[in-house]
C-alpha cells in the first residue's frame, strides 16, 4: 500500500512540474543574470538540452536499500516540484512574468524587488546575493571618474579658447598701434610738403632758408655771425705752413691765415668772414643753405635732366659711404635705398618715394649746422656758382693748390682758403700795406698766385681759354 501511495504522489508531482517547469526555469535564469555569474553558484555539471542537469545519484533519504530508492523519473519529478515551488514564489512576489517575451524584462526588474523578498528567493534557489554596497560604490566611482574627465576636458577647451582670444586681442592692438604710427608719419609728411610748397626754393645769393620739419632746429643767424666776426678779429693772423712759406718767399710774398672757427662749420665760417670785407651780412648758416640747395639740386620742380643728375650724385655719395670715405653723420645710402619714409637725425620726416622727395631730404641734411655735414669740394663748387666767387684752396700737406674740380671760369671776386691736415679750413690772406687782404677782384690777385694756380692745376684762373705758356 505504501508503494502505491508513493507512486501516486510521484505522478502528481510530475504532472505539476510539467505545468510550471518552464516558468521556474525562466525565474532561475533571471535571478542568475541579475545577481552573479552562473559558474559561481551552479555545480560543475553540464547543462542539458532540456534545462539544468540533475544528479543521478540522489538517494531517498540515505537508505542503502535498492528497494527503497526512488526511480529516476520520480527524482526528476521531485526536482521539478521544487522548481515549481520557486516559480510560484516568484509569481507571488511579482518578479515573474509567464510571458516568454518578458522574461528578460522581469530579470532586469529584480533590482526593484523588496530587499527581503529578493534575498529569500535567491536563498531558496541557492544563489548568493552580491553586496549592494560594493555595487553602488563601484557605480558611483565610475560615474565620478566620468564626470571628472568631462570637467577636465571642458576646462582644457576653455583655457585654449581664452588663450587664442588673448592672442587675437594682442594682435589687433599691435596692428592698431602700427596704423596710428603710420598715420602720424603721413601727417607730418603732408604737413612738411604743404609748408615747402608755400615757400619756393630759390637758388639766389640770399636764398631764404626752407624749414624742412617742425622738429628742425632754428639757427640764430645774426648772433652767430656777430660772434664769429668778433672772435676772428680777436685771433692773431698766423703764417702759413713751412711748405707754403718757402714757396711764397721765393716770390717775395707773404701770406697769413685766420681761424674763423670750427665745429663742423669751418668752410662756411671762413667764406662768410672773407665776404665781410665788403660789408656782406651773409652768415655761415645762409651759406650752408645756398650750398645745400645747389648740391641737392632742389627746386620747385626738376627740370629736364636734373632728376637723373641728382640721382647720380646721390649714388656717388652712397659709394663714398660704403667705401669708408665718409665723415658725415647722415647716411646718403639710407636716403637712396629708402622707398617710403626717411627720418633724419633731427627727427624730420620726408616722403622719399620720388627723386624730388629724396632731394628735399638731402637738402635738409646738408644744411644742418655742426658736424652733421662738413664742407667738401661739392659745397665749394656750389658756393662758387651761387655767389659768383672763386674759391682757391691752398693745401697745407703738399704746398700746392688743391684741385676742387669746380668749373674754372672768371668770377667777380676770389677767396683763398688754407686747408690744414685734410680736415680744417682757415681763411688765407695777403699781407700788405693796409693789413691782411682776403677778398680779391680779378685784377687784385698777385701774379705769383696766378702762376701757382696755372702750375698746380694745369689751368688759367682768370683766362681759362688761353694757351699755357
Automatic annotation (TrEMBL):
Residues 1-30 form the signal peptide. InterPro entries: TAT_signal (IPR006311). PROSITE patterns: PROKAR_LIPOPROTEIN, TAT. Keywords: Signal. The keyword Signal applies. This is OTU-like cysteine protease domain-containing protein. It comes from Eimeria acervulina. The lineage of its organism: Eukaryota, Sar, Alveolata, Apicomplexa, Conoidasida.
Amino acid at each position: 500500500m505504501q508503494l502505491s501511495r508513493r507512486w501516486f504522489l510521484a505522478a502528481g508531482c510530475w504532472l505539476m512540474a510539467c505545468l510550471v517547469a518552464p516558468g521556474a526555469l525562466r525565474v532561475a535564469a533571471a535571478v542568475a543574470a541579475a545577481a552573479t555569474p552562473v559558474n559561481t553558484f551552479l555545480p560543475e555539471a553540464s547543462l542539458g538540452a532540456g534545462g539544468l542537469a540533475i544528479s543521478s545519484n540522489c538517494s531517498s533519504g540515505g537508505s542503502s536499500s535498492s528497494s527503497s530508492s526512488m526511480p529516476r523519473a520520480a527524482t526528476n519529478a521531485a526536482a521539478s516540484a521544487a522548481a515549481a515551488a520557486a516559480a510560484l514564489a516568484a509569481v507571488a512576489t511579482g518578479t515573474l512574468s509567464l510571458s516568454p517575451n518578458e522574461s528578460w524584462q522581469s530579470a532586469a526588474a529584480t533590482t526593484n524587488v523588496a530587499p527581503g523578498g529578493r534575498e529569500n528567493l535567491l536563498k531558496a534557489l541557492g544563489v548568493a546575493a552580491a553586496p549592494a554596497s560594493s555595487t553602488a560604490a563601484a557605480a558611483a566611482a565610475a560615474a565620478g571618474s566620468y564626470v571628472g574627465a568631462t570637467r577636465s576636458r571642458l576646462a582644457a577647451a576653455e583655457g585654449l579658447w581664452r588663450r587664442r582670444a588673448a592672442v587675437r586681442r594682442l594682435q589687433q592692438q599691435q596692428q592698431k598701434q602700427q596704423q596710428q604710427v603710420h598715420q602720424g608719419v603721413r601727417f607730418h609728411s603732408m604737413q612738411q610738403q604743404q609748408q615747402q610748397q608755400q615757400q619756393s626754393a630759390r637758388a639766389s645769393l640770399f636764398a631764404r632758408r626752407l624749414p624742412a620739419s617742425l622738429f628742425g632746429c632754428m639757427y640764430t643767424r645774426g648772433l652767430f655771425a656777430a660772434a664769429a666776426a668778433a672772435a676772428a678779429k680777436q685771433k692773431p693772423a698766423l703764417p702759413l705752413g713751412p711748405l707754403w712759406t718757402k714757396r711764397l718767399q721765393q716770390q717775395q710774398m707773404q701770406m697769413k691765415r685766420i681761424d674763423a672757427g670750427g665745429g663742423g662749420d669751418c668752410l662756411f665760417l671762413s667764406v662768410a668772414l672773407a665776404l665781410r670785407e665788403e660789408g656782406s651780412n651773409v652768415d655761415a648758416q645762409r651759406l650752408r643753405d645756398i650750398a645745400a640747395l645747389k648740391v641737392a639740386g632742389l627746386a620747385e620742380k626738376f627740370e629736364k635732366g636734373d632728376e637723373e643728375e641728382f640721382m647720380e650724385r646721390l649714388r656717388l655719395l652712397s659709394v663714398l659711404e660704403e667705401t669708408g670715405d665718409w665723415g658725415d653723420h647722415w647716411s646718403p645710402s639710407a636716403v637712396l635705398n629708402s622707398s617710403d619714409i626717411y627720418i633724419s637725425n633731427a627727427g624730420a620726416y620726408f616722403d622719399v618715394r620720388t627723386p624730388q622727395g629724396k632731394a628735399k631730404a638731402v637738402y635738409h641734411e646738408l644744411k644742418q649746422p655742426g658736424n652733421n655735414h662738413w664742407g667738401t669740394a661739392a659745397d665749394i663748387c656750389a658756393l662758387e656758382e651761387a655767389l659768383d666767387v672763386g674759391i682757391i684752396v691752398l693745401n697745407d700737406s703738399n704746398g700746392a693748390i688743391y684741385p676742387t674740380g669746380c668749373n674754372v671760369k672768371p668770377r667777380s671776386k676770389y677767396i683763398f682758403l688754407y686747408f690744414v691736415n685734410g680736415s680744417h679750413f682757415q681763411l688765407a690772406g695777403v699781407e700788405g700795406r693796409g693789413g691782411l687782404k682776403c677778398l680779391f677782384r680779378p685784377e687784385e690777385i698777385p701774379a705769383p698766385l696766378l702762376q701757382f694756380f696755372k702750375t698746380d692745376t694745369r689751368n688759367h684762373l682768370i683766362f681759362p681759354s688761353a694757351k699755357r705758356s
